[in-house]
UniProtKB/TrEMBL annotation:
Protein name from the UniProt record: GntR family transcriptional regulator
Domain HTH gntR-type stretches: 15-82
Gene Ontology terms for molecular function: DNA binding; DNA-binding transcription factor activity
SMART domains associated with the record: FCD (SM00895), HTH_GNTR (SM00345)
InterPro entries in the record: GntR_C, TF_FadR/GntR_C, Tscrpt_reg_HTH_GntR, WH-like_DNA-bd_sf, WH_DNA-bd_sf
Matching Gene3D superfamilies: GntR ligand-binding domain-like, Winged helix-like DNA-binding domain superfamily/Winged helix DNA-binding domain
CDD domains (alphabetical): WHTH_GntR
Pfam families (alphabetical): FCD, GntR
Keywords associated with the record: DNA-binding, Transcription, Transcription regulation
Amino acid sequence: MDTRSEARPAGARRLPRSLSVADELRAAVIAGEFGPGERLQEVRLSKRLGVSRTPVRLALQALAADGLLEHAPRRGYSVRRFDATEILNAFEIRAALEGLAARFAAERGLEEAARARLEAILAEGDALLSRGELPEGSRPAYIRMNAAFHEALHGASGSRMLGEMLRLSQNLPLSSHHHVVAFEYRRVRRRHDDHHRILEAVLRRDARRAENLMCDHVASIKAGLTGVAGP
C-alpha cells in the first residue's frame, strides 16, 4: 500500500490522519489483502502505513463500528467473517441502492463535468477491451475503472445519504465494486457493455430504465460468485 502523500491543490482540506488511515485499511480489507479472521495488529499496521499507533487504533475502531472488523478483549481486532447468506443479502441491498442512484442521476440530469467523467471512464474501459482479450496484468486497471464508474454515478445521484448507505452496503469484500468476480474477457465485456447502457439511459433521462439496468447489472455480478451463487 502506497502511503506517500499526494500533492493537494492550494486550499484543499486535509483529512484527519485517522480518517485517511481508516480509508486505506478499509480499501485493503475490501480488496482481500487481509483474510477472514486475520488479526490486525497495531504495531505492524503502524509500520506498514508509516504512522503512529494512535491513528491506527482510531481507524480500527472506525472499521469495527462499520462492521468490517470484530473486536475481542485481549485479542484485539480481526477481519470479520461473512457467511454466504450475508454476502448474497449485501448484493440484494447494493442492487436496490445502486438502482436508486442511477434513477436519481437520470431524474436530475448529468452536469457536463459528470458526463465527461463517466464518458472518459467508459473510453478507458473500451481501450482495455479493444483487443478482444484481457491484457496480462490488466486486472488492477479494470478494478480502478469499474470502481470509478460506480462512484461517479453515485456522486451524480446528488444524495449524500444514499452515498453513505451504498458505502455501508459494500463493507463486505465480495460485494464491493472494488472486487471483480470472474475476471475473464466474455464476462468483463458484458459488464462493461452494461455500463454503456446504463449511462445511455441516464443521459436520455429514462429513470426507470436506468434503475432497472443497474439492478440487473449488480444481480448478474452476484450470480457469478463461485461457491456462493449460481454460475
